[in-house]
Amino acid sequence: MSRAVARFVATSVAAALLAGCTLAPRYERPAAPVAPTYSEGSGTASETAASASAAAEIGWRSFFPDSQLQSLIDRALANNRDLRVAALNVEAARAAYRIQRSELVPAIDAVGQANSQRVPASLSQTGESMVFRQYGASVGVTAFELDFFGRVRSLQRSALEEYLSLDETRQSAHLSLVSEVANAWLTLVADRELLKLTRETLQSQQNSFDLTKLRFNSGVVSELDLHQAEIALRTAEANIAIYTRRVEQDRNALTLLVGEPLPPELDSEEKSIESQVFAQDLPAGLPADLLERRPDIRAAEHALLARNADIGAARAAFFPRITLTGSYGQAHSDLDNLFQSPQRVWTFAPQLTLPIFSGGANVANLDLAHVRKRIEIARYEKAIQSAFREVSDALVARRTLTEQLTAQEALTRAASESYRLSDMRYRAGVESYLNTLIAQRDLYQAQQALINLRLEQASNTISLYKALGGGWRE
Q1: Dihedral (Cα; 165, 167, 171, 174), 10-degree rounding
Q2: pTM, whole model, 2 decimals?
Q3: DSSP string, 259-315
Q4: pLDDT in tens, 21-55
Q5: DSSP 3-state assignment of 118?
Q6: Exposure string (b/e) for 105-139, b if CB count within 10 Å is 16 or more?
Q7: What is the reported pLDDT for 147?
Q8: What gap in Å lies between CA 381 and CA 439, rounded to an integer?
């Protein structure tokens, strides 16, 4: 090694010892690749930002006031298998981090050894065969690396960030599970309401069919009217089967999310989708708030930090590695006297490894670390963009769904009045059954659309709650 190289290595070692840092590049959070505000937002940016923190602070028990839904979410958080796997992954990552962190301190081992050797007469200096025995007991350190250039600390930081990323992923799974259970519950409530509506419609169609058949037998209406009434009746019967199947499938989906059989009291109370009112308004805030509120974005940033630390470990591979191996103990030729009349023994074997030629492996590892960091930057930016879109879509849907729901309620009232008047005219013999059939069909479709629209509005509110990072706290 030349004098210049030696001076460089000595200077680098001294600088690393004084700085006490790694060779990882200084981390700078990438700029968020989204607009500074949502297009739907109202009020000034400062007013919106001031109230935005409330959205993530709303616990799911406050947001979902229905006691049955709260019970289902509680059961799901305790029993859902996907969430359990996510929690176990966090435990595994924590154990891996502890293993990596342990390399920062030397591992001290106690060693007891015995060595017996027979020397044949042909090799013995005395001309007679001899048996040599040696016993020893010592404590020592094996291949402990002096982390002058931060390689071990970089690997430890990478393992820590991986653990934190998985912990945020678990929180994201928690949020997703809360929203999935709520959506599954609302879907079940809506389909039950649709089944109830269809049964009421079936009864109405049955009454209309009986009346039409009686009037047909009396010669008041034509056979066409009779068949039209029967078509409406059979359609309602088919819809009964459809919604019965959907309700059972909704129960199965909810059972899978909850992770155990549903409680029997779930079927004891009739609920309407209109009664599922959420307790809190949701201020949207600014897109920058998502960086702190969304666990999936935080998980992506921790993964980015892990790759940044890997660069430090890859850079440290270019510098010398110093490892220490040593032991201190006692030795004796007689096991009985090992601790009574001991003879001290010790070893000290430092090792310096200076990379000279590695076939380009170190350079390739550094290039790979940089590429992996750029990949994580892209994933981090994609996570921000996806979160921005989810919030923006939910905000647009919130505004338009409110307008659509108002129109649909007015349409349903008009269809109800149209059917009432048409049915009166038919029973009075003023007009044919065809007009009544059309009015009844329009009313049934309007009522179905109203229930489905209320379900969509409730699901959108849940989506916005989740998109803003709500649902983690209770």
Answers
A1: 120
A2: 0.82
A3: TSPPPGGGGSS---GGG---S-------GGGHHHH-HHHHHHHHHHHHHHHHHHHHH
A4: 678 899 999 998 888 887 754 444 443 444 444 66
A5: strand
A6: ebeeeeeeeeeeeeeeeeeeeeeeeeeeebbbbbe
A7: 85
A8: 53
Angle at CA 102, nearest 5°, toward 97 and 106? 165
Rounded CA-CA distance 311/322 in Å is: 20
Amino acid identity, position 337: N
What parts of the chain have a pLDDT lower than 50? 1-2, 4-19, 41-53
Q: Which tokens go with 94?
A: 């924590």
Helix (H, G, I), strand (E, B) or coil at 221: coil
Return the pLDDT at 48: 43
Please provide residue 140's backbone torsions phi and psi, each rounded to the nearest 5 degrees: -165, 175
How confident is the model at residue 269, as a pLDDT?
A: 66
Percent of the chain scored above 70 by pLDDT? 88
* For the chain, percent of residues with pLDDT exceeding 90: 42
Q: Are 323 and 434 in contact (CB under 8 A)?
A: no
Which structure tokens are listed for 345? 């023994």
Bridge partner residues of 332 (DSSP): 135
Q: Which residue type, as a one-letter code, is found at position 381?
A: E
In the chain, what are the domains? 16-104+148-318+372-467 (1.20.1600.10), 105-146+320-354 (2.20.200.10)
- Chain centre distance of CA 206: 50
Instruction: Please work out, in degrees rounded to the nearest 5, the angle formed at the alpha carbon of residue 320 by the alpha carbons of 319 and 324.
Output: 145
Q: Tens digit of pLDDT for each residue in 303-316?
A: 999 999 999 999 99
Largest CA distance in the chain: 137
Residues 6+ positions from 93 with CB-CB distance below 8 Å = 159, 162, 163, 166, 167
pLDDT for the residue numbered 220:
78
